[in-house]
Amino acid sequence: MSQVTSSSDPNANEARFIVTFFAKTRPSNAASGAILVQDDTKSQSRACGPTFSSLLAPQVSPGSLTLLTNNTLAAGVFQSIYTVTAPFPNPAKVRHHASIAAFEALHAVEIVFDLVPSSTTPDFVRPVKLAVFDMDSTLINEEVIDELARSIGITDAVAAITARAMNGEIEFEQSLRERLALLQGVKADVWEELKNTITVAKGAKDLIEYLREHGVITVVVSGGFAPMANWLKEQLGLDHAFANHLIVSPSNSKYAYPHLSGELSPEHPIVVPEYKKQVLEMLARDNSIPLSETFVVGDGSNDLLMLGAAGLGVAWRAKERVQKVAPQRLNGRTLSDLIYLLGGTVEERSR
């Protein structure tokens, strides 16, 4: 991930280490001030306050960790904010430490770690100016390529390749070309049908609205396909959409209608993991945004590079292999849970 670094500025030698706890079992009618780990807020504070501070201390420079505040953000969501001094802890390394995994298992929580400069977070708000999202199984519930396969009755064959690709068992570009070859002959107007069946993920609209209200540039970059990415851009009010472009062939003796050729357009870049990272870096550079102020969310192995390059990269309901190696991960109920990581509350969205 993009790291906070020290400089001649004295304030740069201090940062906020923000630790957000999400209970794996949370009431559906979440209300602020409710429990997180145990049956009362006192046991919650013991579990995620002093107890956790003592667990965290060995992973930072001696004497550099100071607890500033513990806050219950909502039912099942609790946050501890620390001051740390340079050299700063790496949030990804802390997240993957065996002691953290043991703590999560013991208390039935998932923990997200973040590090931001103290000078940019006077109100404990995570600085974000650019947010980049994957599309399939992230901003939408489906895998579009699997839905294309369903339209011609080859769901299982394509879905099996998709699963292997998202788990990182085969290279993404190879898997994409293999699946597309199976989709030759799909009607070119299939996108209009899919717009009636594809569903936007729960909480996506609230999350994007929150980001836009705070002046954040919002982007979808997808290993899926441009017609659906552009449709989603309009649905959610995103600023940019990047996705793969397919070749459409005219009707012929085999197919009496315009159809997908089963090939990618050579006139456009293929959205592989490296390209996703390049889009993040390009948009940050073009808008004079430091990578430390970028936020990335995705679920597949093809998202790992951009997740690692972001200031805060969160694998959302990710594939098993991705969760094991991603900088941060969260298996929440709704994408609006991510608002808590940025210093907001979901309750703001309902007012």
Biggest sheet: strands, sense, closure?
6 strands, parallel
Structural class: alpha/beta
Q: Would you list the SSEs in sequence order as H and E? A: EHHEEHHEEHHHHHHEHEEEHEHEHEH
Q: Please give the share of residues in helix.
A: 25-40%
Overall mean pLDDT score? 88
Radius of gyration: 22 Å
* Low-pLDDT runs: 5-10, 30-43
How much of the sequence lies in strands comes to 15-25%
Walk across the major sheet and give the strand order: 7-6-5-10-11-12
What is the number of helices?
A: 15
User: Got a strand count?
Assistant: 12
Question: Mind explaining what this structure looks like?
Answer:
With 351 residues, this protein is an alpha/beta fold. It contains 15 helices and 12 strands. 35% of the residues lie in helices and 22% in strands. The strands form 3 sheets. The chain has a 6-stranded parallel sheet, with helices on both faces. The chain has a 4-stranded antiparallel sheet with strand order 2-3-1-4. The longest helix has 14 residues.
Features:
351 residues, 15 helices, 4-stranded antiparallel β-sheet, elongated, 6-stranded parallel β-sheet
Summarize the structure.
Helices cover about 35% and strands about 20% of the residues. It is an alpha/beta fold and about 350 residues long.
Give the arrangement of secondary structure elements:
Blueprint: E1 14-23, H1 41-48, H2 50-56, E2 66-74, E3 77-85, H3 91-95, H4 98-107, E4 109-117, E5 130-133, H5 135-139, H6 144-151, H7 155-166, H8 172-182, H9 190-194, H10 204-213, E6 217-225, H11 226-236, E7 240-244, E8 246-249, E9 259-264, H12 273-286, E10 294-298, H13 304-309, E11 312-316, H14 320-325, E12 328-330, H15 346-349
Parallel strand pairs: 5-6, 5-10, 6-7, 10-11, 11-12
Antiparallel strand pairs: 1-3, 1-4, 2-3, 8-9
